[in-house]
Design a protein that fits this description.
about 35% strand, single chain, alpha+beta, 6 helices, eleven-stranded antiparallel β-sheet, about 425 residues
Amino acid sequence: MMSGLSVVVLILTLLSSTRAEKARKVSGPVFNPGCPEEYDCKEPWVVHVMADGSNNTMHHLWGTHGAPCFLLANTPLLTTLMVDWQKLQSAEENSLAFDNNPNHVFGFAVPYLILFNDTKDTGTLDPLLDATYYIPASDFSWVMNMSSNSNSSHGGEAKVTLHTTAYLGDLLPNDTQIVIKVSGYGEDGEGGELPKLLHTPSSAQVDLTLSKLVFDVHDGENLSTTSGNSGISGFSHARWAIQLVIVSSELAEKDDDGIKFHEERSLDDEHSPGVFHLDELTTALSRNGGKGGYLQWRPVSYTAYKRNINEATDISINKTITPIPTTLPAPLKASLAYGLLGDNLTSRNLVTGITVVSFGQAKDGFYTDYNHTTWTVAIGEGPPPIETFSAVVIIVISIGIGIPVILFIVGGIVIARRKCRRSSPGLIDDD
């Protein structure tokens, strides 16, 4: 009778199995490595985390100068990061390098915040119809808080928090800020906070929060926040979006789509209640199981500090990925991406591109109704992780399926035995 239940459990367990990657040893983070005293070393120019595997090292490079930028560089073991601080602070290419050529580089940058007037209340930026202000991320001043957590001898996690302090040189109000929490991982798992994205030993997570950004973007001297009903900078239907620049060292193929958007349906909403799918951007190598790169996120933006699906709105992305212009925007040219990849960013021989991520949905009251927007995205190398059934779900499904199967079998046996008794001839008494 238990064989049926065992088969059910076995099938569900096989469904829940995934390609497990060997854990890495995480070290860091190191803040502005080797920055000389005569240079500006207070700003988070370079945050370096290393994750050593058995055959290679994953270097995590994070920084906010010019444009917040988050890179993964896969290198041979015992490879050292070299920073030319004069070049880096002069926004020159090749300011970052490794003493061994990287096997692969992938990442993204956010050169601009975009404030747009969504008069049609769609929740999505339409650059042809919506009035917009492009605000360079370099207009903000940033600081960093650092912490690390090594939870095993082989894996671990390194994390930092980056946040703004000033806009155009003037201090922001205490509750007005952009906060970016970044984590680099050394083992498989899921995030501890909604939307609980899956991560691998070759991935990181970036969690962006736009908190009470309701000041007049034209007036750096008057940064007092405005009331919720007055809009932002003259926009009565104000929403925020970001310009997303994807960078890679992967060679572009003529017959390939390059960076491609894909929507992955989830098995259930166990990890993020109310959200049943994932959005992904992948390179060709990632889609084919190779060492390409991916971005993966749930299309949900939480609109309150305490995250739950009842206080959330949508995230939408422009699925058209356009080439990076040959004349780089100033924020991008001052970023880590340019420091490492240089003018190759504009090369049509590499897989790169620009798109826009918008926050909001129809009838959600616009940004000023909640003054809080989040976006959590995983960045990794290789194919994106696939959601599977957890042990709890397997047990619940097994019980739900197994008990009726057992009852059916037991019932069948009882009925069969009764029929056999009725059909058997009675015993004859010879006395």
